[in-house]
Amino acid sequence: MRLSTFAYLSFLGLAFSSAVPPLGYERRLLRDAFDKRSSNASSTSCFADGAPSTVAPKPNVWAPLSPTDNLAVWNFLHDPAAGLNLTHPDEAVLTDNYVFWIDVLHTNKSDVLPFLDGEGPLPAKYARAIIFQGGKADPDSQEYMIGPLPVSAETTIEKLDYMYNGGSGGSVPYNARYFDGPRSTATDPLIASIMSNISDITAALFQGGAYYGAEDERSNLSLTSGTPLSFDGTQAFRNIMFRFPGPASYMTPLDFFLLIDCTGTDASLYSLKGFVTGEKFYPTIADLRSAFEAGTLGAEYDQTVDADWALVNYKPELGVRALEERLAPSTIEIGGKRYKLDEENQYVEYMGWSFYISYSQTLGFMFFDIKFKGERIIYELSMQEATAQYGGNQPKAANTVYHDTYYQLGTSIGTLVEGFDCPWGSTFWNLTYHSRNTTVVNEDSLCIFEADMNFPLSRHRAADSNDYGFSKFGTVKGAALIVRSIATVGNYDYMFDYSFHMDGSLEVIVRASGYLQSSFYYPNQGKWGPRIQQATQGSLHDHIITYKADFDILGTSNALQVSELKAVNQSQPWFPELGTFEQMELDASIMETEQQFNYFPNNQAMYVVLNQNETNAWGEPRGYRIVPGRSDIHLSILNSPWSLKNSEFAKSQLAVTRQHDNEPYANSVQNINLPSKPQQDFSKFFDGESVVDEDLVVWFNLGMHHFTRAEDVPVTLYTEAYSSIVFAPQNFFDRAQDGDLLNRRWMEVDEEGVLTYEAYGVTLETCDVVLEEPAESLGTIFDI
Ligand SMILES: *[C@@H]1O[C@H](CO)[C@@H](O)[C@H](O)[C@H]1NC(C)=O
Ligand SMILES: *[C@@H]1O[C@H](CO)[C@@H](O)[C@H](O)[C@H]1NC(C)=O
Ligand SMILES: *[C@@H]1O[C@H](CO)[C@@H](O)[C@H](O)[C@H]1NC(C)=O
Ligand SMILES: *[C@@H]1O[C@H](CO)[C@@H](O)[C@H](O)[C@H]1NC(C)=O
Ligand SMILES: *[C@@H]1O[C@H](CO)[C@@H](O)[C@H](O)[C@H]1NC(C)=O
Ligand SMILES: *[C@@H]1O[C@H](CO)[C@@H](O)[C@H](O)[C@H]1NC(C)=O
Ligand SMILES: *[C@@H]1O[C@H](CO)[C@@H](O)[C@H](O)[C@H]1NC(C)=O
Ligand SMILES: *[C@@H]1O[C@H](CO)[C@@H](O)[C@H](O)[C@H]1NC(C)=O
Ligand SMILES: *[C@@H]1O[C@H](CO)[C@@H](O)[C@H](O)[C@H]1NC(C)=O
Ligand SMILES: [Cu+2]
After folding, report:
1. Which range is the signal sequence, renumbered to this chain (predicted)?
2. What ligand has the least distance to the C-alpha of 582?
3. Domain covering 67-175 in this structure, CATH number
4. Cα–Cα dist 539/531, whole Å
């Protein structure tokens, strides 16, 4: 469509700049020259306007805590009357009690449904708080629930034990609790003393690099140790790897590891366990020194001190690509926004879809009450955990398993760059979370936009025996609403997309970019990944992103149907010459009990969540299919001591459970340091309960086996590191939900060759730029 393309471009030039909403500070920093161009051209373009507003049918009962409630809870906890004997975190040492964080507590579904669907009361709001209790005789971390909110005479502080099945409720042993500032500070004197003692050795091995302590200006090595740092909470250790510091320190690891024991709250008892370098273990300083003096230490390659190669900036040395100085194509909501928002209630309506968005500091954005054309499909859709497990013949990679909720993944969701992270003109929402008694705003951290799918939703050109090639020709526009956020948790930038398609299907996508957690490169270590730079190995690892989909297909009475495609030998009397012959048939059954399971080999089974009591016009039960997308994997290793019982949710592609108020989450946020004695053991959800005609929850995993490569430098690419799944109507309707869309073209050619072309009033000129679509152009488009 040559003419239309021309119209589109002039349209851009005319009206682009007025699409920009008021800017905040960080956004202003991020804005680039293109975006700054601010003409005063008439702002009459359709897409310049924000989304029309709507009013949510009910208030958002899943909303995060308000700043007022957070402050009130903070003050309530710190009131001496609460009896918690809390110290301010800034002043706290290991043997004090202090607040780790406060967040909203999941609202029980059994309280929400009567409110949402009937005249039930507004569910009470509760906060949850994790308090480190180093001041106790048996120090631990204890989680509390505080409510109802707002704080009043009725508000109480109770131990939050009910949702943990590990046996100790909301209590986590001191050794396994989050490794925060005070714990890190407590280990530094030991590390500094050991590393000062051997500074001549590290300087000789690592280009003058030495470590004298976190606050010592002479230190020019940085250190890192990950998780788990305990197996069952009776011990704590740090397997420390040294690196060259800087913005890309993840990419400049050194071949030097210090292993220490840091059990308990008495730092004077912390001790050296040994050193590792050159794949050898040295239990004492003396052992290390004698190896050094014997000249046996040292690596073949030097790590790069200047890691400019690891920055995501322009690298002219890669060459010039013709025409690359031109602006790249963009998705633009050219006809004006086609979704409605209730920002106060974080509620969205789009093309038949409606849903609420919520947010938690650990899980990030969550979706509730997802309906299509007024019928509920999913009660809750939320990311539950982002796990990564590494492999390598050295202590750091072998020891590393991450649960990113431990690091409060939700608070790592940051500002998005318009035009790059999300299309120009997207709706941006701020993210608000609380830190102690204050409220932090991460500006423009959620974006909402409708995107051209760049392929039609459906089409058919009915071949005919006339002379014109076709007689009837229909094609329907493909578009989807995408809700996106990006969490940068340490090294990785996880991009979370939820795509609401026109036909009632819903796609969940996760992508990963950012730095590899790399290792020092030794020759002949290909088993754990390739050499990707002078002295850097891309460490092999798995990413497993666990999600919860609490389906409510037309109510809570649902079942999971498994339709296996089977090859069977049959005979058919009209093919006597074949005798028995093989063909395929469907073997459908209903899954009886809760279980973890994997997709069939060759994807030879279909999974459908359906309501056996609700049928479509054809008498078929109405349901939604779970369609595997790209890279729907589970963890490669199932019996690692580092992820033994605290990562069970990562070990199957799918799972189905009965919904229970006391099983809201797949994982607990401090489970990572308890692999052999978990606070929450997902596998205990599977206790033989029936999932037939029950309220069921589907847990699914996306992820990537990260086969690292030189192209992970400087950072991993979103093109390759992505995984997806689709939930698609399966006999939910009586026909495809594309008939009611006006964004389509319909053409008919009669016997005389006269073309009728129907655009249903939807053309490019719905914006200012009026441009006739001249009839003669059709000839060139359709070659008739
Ligand atoms: C836009 O208009 C305002 C008010 O007339 C003026 O102050 C401003 O300089 C104009 N901006 C540009 C980029 O022309
Ligand atoms: C309160 O905690 C402090 C440590 O922060 C401790 O020294 C003190 O004994 C505690 N008081 C009570 C009454 O438990
Ligand atoms: C360094 O470590 C060795 C071996 O443990 C010890 O004998 C020596 O006293 C230490 N030196 C210093 C300065 O701490
Ligand atoms: C570390 O600091 C020392 C002393 O300033 C210097 O000689 C050496 O080059 C530095 N090494 C690195 C890797 O930064
Ligand atoms: C986002 O936060 C900034 C800074 O606090 C504020 O100016 C802006 O109005 C907020 N945006 C929205 C949509 O609330
Ligand atoms: C938050 O706590 C700090 C330190 O205790 C205090 O200075 C500040 O006034 C508090 N802010 C509010 C809003 O209460
Ligand atoms: C069908 O019969 C053939 C011949 O006996 C056999 O080789 C094949 O495995 C059978 N297929 C199935 C699905 O049983
Ligand atoms: C489904 O319908 C049957 C027959 O009407 C009824 O007996 C049964 O209780 C219904 N089941 C559910 C879960 O509603
Ligand atoms: C939520 O349900 C659990 C399990 O039934 C219960 O223990 C808990 O008290 C409920 N929470 C609220 C806020 O009512
Ligand atoms: Cu990776």
Report:
1. 1-19
2. 7
3. 3.10.450.40
4. 9
Residue 158 Cβ inside 6 Å of ligand 9? The answer reads no
pLDDT along the chain (784 residues), means of 10: 29 32 38 33 52 97 98 98 97 97 98 97 98 96 98 98 98 98 97 98 98 98 96 98 96 98 98 97 98 95 95 96 94 90 98 98 98 98 98 96 98 96 95 97 97 96 78 95 97 97 98 96 90 97 98 98 97 97 97 98 98 98 98 98 98 98 98 98 98 98 98 97 98 98 94 89 59 38 33
Tokens of 300: 């073949």
148 lines ligand 9 (CB under 6 A): no
* For the CA of 435, the nearest ligand: 6
131 lines ligand 2 (CB under 6 A): no
Ligand 1 neighbourhood includes 38 CB (under 6 angstroms)? yes
Q: How far apart are CA 540 and CA 547, in angstroms?
A: 23
Q: At what angle do helices 775-782 and 2-15 cross, to 10 degrees?
A: 120
User: Each residue of 204-235: b (16+ CB within 10 Å) or e?
Assistant: ebbeebbbbeeeeeebbbbbbbbbbbbbbbee
Among the listed residues 726, 608, 703, the one whose alpha carbon sits nearest the alpha carbon of residue 656: 608
The catalytic residue positions are: 404, 492
* Closest CA relative to residue 177, chosen from 524, 673, 627: 673
The whole-angstrom separation of Cα 302 and Cα 305 is 9
444 near 352, Cβ under 8 Å?
no
State the pLDDT at residue 47: 54
**Which alpha helices (DSSP H) does 33-144 contain, by range?**
33-36, 67-78, 109-117
Asked if 346 and 369 touch (Cβ cutoff 8 Å), the reply is no
CB crowding 316-335: b at 16 or more within 10 Å, else e: eeeeeeeeeeeeeeebbbbb
Q: Alpha-carbon distance 642 to 259, whole Å?
A: 16
In the block, residue with structure tokens 């939820």: 498
* Other C-beta atoms lying within 10 Å of the C-beta of residue 440: 13
CA torsion, ordered 713, 716, 720, 724, to nearest 10 deg: 170
Report the distance separating Cα 744 and Cα 759, nearest Å.
6
CA distances from 372 to 194, 378, 779 (A): 62, 10, 39
Phi-psi region of 504 (alpha: psi -120 to 50; beta: other; left: phi over 0): left
Q: Among all ligands shown, which has an atom nearest to the Cα of 95?
A: 2
CA of 567 to the centre of ligand 7 (A): 8
Kindly state the tokens that stand for 689: 């309960």
Whole-angstrom CA distances from 617 to 225, 448, 551, 612, 735 are: 59, 35, 22, 14, 9
Which of 429, 443, 445 to mutate to test ligand 5, by most ligand atoms within 8 A of the CB atom? 443
Domain residues of the chain, as ranges? 2-43+771-779, 67-175, 181-301
Retrieve residue 155's tokens.
Answer: 């508000």
Which ligand 6 atom is nearest residue 437's CA? Answer: 1
| Cβ pair 364, 410 in contact under 8 A | yes
Question: Distance between terminal CA atoms of the chain?
Answer: 15
Look at strands 438-452 and 595-597 and give their pairing: unpaired
The binding-site residues of ligand 7, defined as CB within 6 angstroms of any ligand atom, are: 567-569, 582
Contact assessment for residue 154 and residue 169, using Cβ atoms and an 8 Å cutoff: no
Distance from the alpha carbon of residue 167 to the mean position of ligand 8, in angstroms: 38
Query: Is any ligand 5 atom within 6 A of the Cβ of residue 443?
Result: yes
Same CATH fold assignment for domains 67-175 and 181-301: yes
**pTM of this structure:** 0.92
Distance CA 315, CA 322 (A): 16
Distance separating alpha carbons of residues 402 and 342, to the nearest angstrom: 36
Q: Is the CATH code 3.40.50.2000 the one for domain 181-301? A: no
- What size, in residues, is the chain? 784
- Which residues on neighbouring strands pair with residue 488, listed in sequence order? 493
Task: Give the type of residue at 411.
Answer: T
